[in-house]
Design a protein that fits this description.
About 5% of the residues lie in helices and about 25% in strands. By secondary structure, it is mainly β. Strands 1, 2, 3, 6 and 7 form a 5-stranded antiparallel beta sheet that branches. It has a two-stranded antiparallel sheet with strand order 4-5. Strand 4 and strand 5 form a beta hairpin.
């Protein structure tokens, strides 16, 4: 599982080019809970992929994801990934939890 937390709408959901994005990776069997720590308050968006073949990216077939994916606020999935505004949330001091439903289409 790979997770990317960003404040930059221009690099969401693929935040590889975002040098300020925070990333976590964990084996899928151990990824029941991913924890970002010591994050300053602000507005963020979170994207998660289940990289089943460990190639570091979300594989697609005809632009349809072949691996699991999910986003903060669990927006409806239509044609293409949701935008930053659909997934953004405010992180406040203290404990904040985002429960993300990982979806599989193929």
């Amino acid at each position: 599982m790979h997770a990317c937390l960003t404040q930059d709408r221009t690099h969401f959901p693929d935040c590889r080019a975002d040098s300020r994005a925070l990333r976590l990776s964990a084996p899928a069997r151990a990824a029941g809970a991913l924890r970002f720590e010591n994050i300053p308050g602000g507005t963020y968006a979170l994207a998660v992929i289940h990289d089943e073949n460990a190639n570091g990216q979300l594989d697609t077939f005809a632009k349809i994801p072949r691996e699991g994916f999910g986003f903060s606020r669990n927006p409806p999935i239509r044609f293409g990934p949701p935008g930053y505004d659909q997934t953004r949330f405010t992180l406040a001091p203290g404990r904040n939890i985002q429960i993300i439903r990982v979806r599989y289409l193929l």
